[in-house]
Amino acid sequence: MIERWKWFVIRISKRPWFRASLYSVLGIATALVALVAAPYIPEDVPTKIGSDAVDNILGVLASSMLAVTTFSLSIMVAAYGSATNNVTPRAISLLVEDSTTQNTLSTFVGSFIFSLVGIIALSTGLYGDNGRVVLFAATIVVVILVVYALLRWIDQLSGLGRVAETTARVEKAATQALCQRMEQPYLGGRPLDIDPKVLPGARPLYADKIGFVQHIDMPSLGELTKSDDCAVYICVLPGIFVEPSRPIAWSVGIGDDCDDALRDAFVIGAQRTFDRDPRYGIIVMAEVASRALSPAINDQGTAIDVIGRGVRVLSHLSRPTPPEDPKFDRVFAPGLSVADMLDDFFTPIARDGAAIIEVCIRLQQALASLSRLGDAAVALAANRHASMALRRAEAALTMPDDYQRVCQVADAAGLLDTSNQQGK
């Protein structure tokens, strides 16, 4: 249950309103701290620093921060719309969750709230001369923070919503999710290498919701399988679409009174997330390339860039990982399918770019790179996709010379024997 709450806290903390609320509370606390610190200020200090200037500074800060926040929000909405039209709607969640953007906007909102509370307190005479000194010092600190946030915001605006910047965010999210999965290929449990339905006493567990698995609370499942005669066999991974007629797990030695606790370990939502789902990041990257290859956009350069990014992400499948020490001995989970990962990425790009020679050549080169990384499963899947991409190119390329050039690239890469294709 603790792991489930940690998951929800992480998800909530990525929402824009969460940081804005925290910064607003911090702004209120900063404005009111002068009431507590005022008795500790020497009596002659207010006359030395001219603390009366704080009234004008707070007024300027309040009016400017409200305008800057409104303007920044309008820029964000325009950037999200641009990314939706030019990249893919699935990438917008990464832009919304960007920490730099959230911190900048939260600084603006918190500064506005700080100024507003300070002005109200000054109008009621709560501070006094000594309190004004503390408020003046806090205002200077807030102004420095605002200037720093503005400088970061200017730099952030240069790439917000652009295709390359958004694609880089998707690549980073996919890489993080895949590396995390490679460290725990079975989510901290043991590999599922048998069909659980044939086990004596196995009972299916069905979902009570329709949606995508977003997270699996392995510690909770571990608690339910402490006894040696109990076990849970997970049938789904994060990113899988489930509905009440499909078993999400099979249990052995666990009574039906624990079914609700078992279901609670599976977080099911309406949308897929990048955090625990490496396949989703790969799918979104393929969507970016497919959209770039559409006749409406016709940007094969972006598709070629995405292919390179996909090779960087998928290369982690070939990296040796230390043997996993299962934390939950009685919980069994399926591993990540290498073939499915390559299918998710290369199939849409090979289909939509089959008539573009530059994309066909880059696909063969990318698949050759993956096949040379040393992993047998990756090499097998790469060879299969190279052959499929070559057949798609044969059907789509109208110039025989273009097809022969693709065959030559594939032959030079050593992926497959293309002597019979080149003679056609």
Contiguous low-pLDDT stretches (5 residues minimum) are: 418-424
Counted up, domains total: 3
The number of distinct β-strands equals: 8
| Helix-strand string | HHHHHHHHEEEHEEEHEHHEHHHHH
Largest sheet report: 5 strands, mixed
Helical content class: 55-70%
How many angstroms separate the termini?
62 Å
- Judged by helices, strands and strand pairing, the structural class is alpha/beta
- Overall average pLDDT: 86
What is the radius of gyration? 28 Å
Strand-residue fraction? 5-15%
Rough outline: flat
Widest β-sheet, arrangement of strands? 1-8-4-6-2
Count, helices: 17
Structure description:
The protein is of the alpha/beta class. It folds into three domains: 2-161, no CATH class; 182-269, Aldehyde Oxidoreductase, domain 3; 278-324 and 335-422. The protein has helices at 2-13, 16-37, 45-49, 54-86, 92-96, 99-123, 128-157, 163-183, 218-224, 259-264, 278-292, 300-314, 338-352, 357-371, 376-396, 400-413, 419-422, and strands at 190-191, 203-206, 211-216, 231-234, 241-242, 247-252, 266-269, 331-333. The strands form two sheets. The protein has a five-stranded mixed β-sheet with strand order 1-8-4-6-2. Helix 14 (357-371) packs parallel to helix 16. The radius of gyration is 28 Å and the shape is flat. The protein starts with a helix and ends with a helix.
